[in-house]
From TrEMBL:
InterPro entries: D-isomer_2-hydroxyacid_DH, D-isomer_2_OHA_DH_cat_dom, D-isomer_DH_CS1, D-isomer_DH_NAD-bd, NAD(P)-bd_dom_sf. Residues 119-298 form the D-isomer specific 2-hydroxyacid dehydrogenase NAD-binding domain. It comes from Lingula anatina (Brachiopod). Belongs to the D-isomer specific 2-hydroxyacid dehydrogenase family. This is Glyoxylate reductase/hydroxypyruvate reductase. Transmembrane segments: none annotated. GO terms for molecular function: glyoxylate reductase (NADPH) activity; hydroxypyruvate reductase [NAD(P)H] activity; NAD binding. One of its GO terms (cellular component) is cytosol. PROSITE patterns: D_2_HYDROXYACID_DH_1. Residues 27-330 form the D-isomer specific 2-hydroxyacid dehydrogenase catalytic domain. Keywords: Oxidoreductase. The lineage of its organism: Eukaryota, Metazoa, Spiralia, Lophotrochozoa, Brachiopoda.
Length: 331
């Protein structure tokens, strides 16, 4: 009897770049994926729900979980591979209970997110954005005010909240700037790791915050960390301190941040993440002179995004081939 060809397994993506230039996956990556799987885009699945039967994996980007409402069209889904380390937008427990694994992309993005943290720290300390506006803006050309000064980062004290992969890379960079480095983390690092980057452990935020000239948030968003930076926390910081966030917007209570910046409880903020993203144009934070905000571009480099995409694909391949996932997150 002639063997009936089994259809190739497929993966779901929300779109290709040609159909959605800002959110779709790039052609090189799609080509790589297609060596192993058919690709079914969201619009095709909605138009032809029968395609869902072949989908074994979903490749999702950040918080764009268009998948959520179409889950019942994916009876054979085995794995959701997230293009990012943070999985706060995915109900991992729920999927695990449904027999669907979840994977993320740790490690490969730590260097570029750490670079972004340091970029924001330096840009804030050295008044980079207003300086560029002075040098390149449309205001009448004036001689530089010699009394308009930033602050040094070298020899200043840095606090890092969250000493996972990203926090550790931030500490490596801060060591090169000869900063005094302290950190707070759920789990203390080994003495060897602490001495590699010259970082000292603080068991609590109460201990850490009053020391810091710069404080970088690099921890995951969890129920415990949402709103962690509240009015009370800002009051524990120095009036000369700058807070930098490359993690998730919700870790900072934005109303409390607004008040702290307005009243000069702290000096400045530099955020790569907010809630929502982007902030509405009439958001009070956008009226302040002592804040800079970048559009969640911590991992947004060509090199890092390619590595993240490859790790997503490796996770899906591992699942269908019955191997342990390179980076599974369990709920
Ligand atoms: C986003 C991030 O996932 O890794 C994370 O947790 O926040 C980012 O890398 C990315 O912007 C979405 O593709």
């Amino acid at each position: 009897m002639a063997e009936i060809d089994k259809p190739r397994p497929a993966v779901w993506i929300h779109a290709r770049q040609k159909d959605d230039p800002t959110q779709g996956f790039n052609p090189e990556f799609c080509e790589r994926v297609e060596k192993h799987f058919d690709i079914i885009c969201h619009k095709d699945l909605v138009a032809n729900p029968i395609l869902g039967a072949n989908i074994v994996g979903a490749l999702v980007r950040g918080s764009r979980m268009y998948l959520e409402n179409t889950l019942d069209l994916l009876p054979n889904l085995k794995i959701i591979a997230n293009n990012g380390v943070g999985v706060d937008h995915i109900d991992v427990k729920k999927y695990n209970q449904l027999g669907v694994k979840v994977a993320n992309t740790p490690d490969v993005l730590c260097d570029s997110v750490a670079d972004m943290a340091v970029t924001l720290m330096l840009a804030s300390a050295r008044n980079l954005i207003p300086g560029v506006k002075l040098a390149m803006g449309s205001e009448p050309v004036q001689e530089l005010n010699q009394n308009w000064l930033g602050n040094d980062v070298c020899f200043a004290t840095l606090g890092i909240v969250g000493m996972g992969g990203i926090g550790f890379k931030i500490a490596q960079r801060a060591k090169a700037f000869q900063m005094n480095i302290y950190y707070h983390n759920r789990k203390r690092r080994s003495t060897a790791e602490e001495s590699t980057v010259g970082a000292s452990y603080c068991a609590s935020l109460e201990e850490l915050l009053p020391k810091c000239d710069y404080l970088i948030i690099a921890c995951p968003q969890t129920p415990e960390t949402v709103g962690m930076f509240s009015e009370a926390r800002f009051k524990q910081m120095k009036p000369s301190a700058t807070i930098i966030n490359v993690a998730r917007g919700k870790i900072i209570d934005q109303e409390a941040l607004y008040t702290a910046l307005k009243n000069k409880t702290i000096k400045a903020a530099a955020l790569d993440v907010t809630y929502p993203e982007p902030l509405p144009r009439d958001h009070p934070l956008l009226t302040l002179p002592n804040i800079i905000i970048s559009p969640h571009t911590g991992s947004a480099t060509v090199e890092t995004r390619r590595k993240m995409e490859m790790l997503m694909l490796e996770n899906v391949l591992a699942e269908v081939e019955g191997r342990p996932l390179p980076s599974e997150v369990k709920g």
